[in-house]
Amino acid sequence: MDRIEEFGLLLKALARETDRRINDLLRPLGITASQAEALQLLDRYGPLSLGELGTLLIAEGGHPSRLVDRLVASGFARRENSSDDRRRIEISCTPRGSELARAAREHKEAFRAWLQDQLAGADLGAATAVLETCLTDTPLAETVRQRRERALADEITP
């Protein structure tokens, strides 16, 4: 196995381990990591159109319509016509969805603490630069950029 193949294998293994751990933590809430991510984004930035949500989610295929359908059917999200553009459909959290988003955030803290312990002393700047380089000129690079910009704006806004 060469270094590139090993690097790819490690990335895939880390992504699977991350999903497994987060899904295990969220199982008592009855939602998946993808559902939690969508609810947390809607709770924080909503209401959003399906396209706007898609640009912020790292979802399979980049289109979250089935994910949103499941959230709406479960009563965690709702679709409504925009107040300023009747052609635009906006998705937002229901009160139950907002409550679930906050609970998911709390449950996911155990994963964050574990990962922080795993990474103690690691050079995250260099690792982040390598990962960003791998994503250059991909749609997911734009997703990461948009999420980073929104998070920075949240930090600046009092």
Automatic annotation (TrEMBL):
Gene3D superfamilies: Winged helix-like DNA-binding domain superfamily/Winged helix DNA-binding domain. Pfam families: MarR (PF01047). GO terms for biological process: response to stress. InterPro entries: HTH_MarR-typ, MarR/SlyA-like, WH-like_DNA-bd_sf, WH_DNA-bd_sf. Keywords: DNA-binding. Residues 4-136 form the HTH marR-type domain. PROSITE patterns: HTH_MARR_2 (PS50995). One of its GO terms (molecular function) is DNA-binding transcription factor activity. PANTHER family: MARR-FAMILY TRANSCRIPTIONAL REGULATOR, TRANSCRIPTIONAL REGULATOR, MARR FAMILY. This is DNA-binding MarR family transcriptional regulator. It comes from Nonomuraea jabiensis.
